[in-house]
């Protein structure tokens, strides 16, 4: 991965924000491709990642033991503001160097984890709410490397489900989704 993580995050945020803004309040209870999450839960999780990974960029710890309810007031505008803060945090000098967090992972790996959530969960939300979503190709390439590297550990920690078989001729993004345990053809009819 040659692009700066902050640049990849900026593009991923630009792709995710319209999906988040497109979620109607009446859809918050809808199921998503993440079996344990309804739309509301997934939005709160994604929000929490965006906020928590700002702290990680600054070399501080982030508490992921509980997820607050971020969907209060004008939460769509707040999501946009928080993603801008995430990008700024990872653009700070030295943010993508050294190790981060209690897992002591390389900073670029940690930043890529935020990129993965912004990309894959934007797709999850789009599928659950009937929206279109096209990810950034450069980000998908970078995430393919991350998932290949971290996938086995992520599955052991129940962060990813077992890989779903990708269809013949699958796009790189469909392969990425499948490697995280998602069915790329998922739609609300799969409930």
In a nutshell, what does this entry contain?
This protein has 191 residues and is mainly alpha-helical.
Question: Could you please describe the fold and organization of this structure?
Answer:
A two-stranded antiparallel ribbon has the order 1-2. 54% of the residues lie in helices and 2% in strands. It is globular. The chain has 6 helices and 2 strands. Helix 1 packs antiparallel against helix 3, helix 2 packs antiparallel against helix 4 and helix 5 packs parallel to helix 6.
Please indicate the count of domains. 1
Overall pLDDT confidence = 92
Helix share bin: 40-55%
Number of strands: 2
User: Order of strands across the biggest sheet?
Assistant: 1-2
Enumerate the spans where pLDDT stays under 50 for 5 or more consecutive residues.
Answer: none
Determine the CATH topology.
Answer: Four Helix Bundle (Hemerythrin (Met), subunit A)
Class per helix and strand makeup: mainly alpha
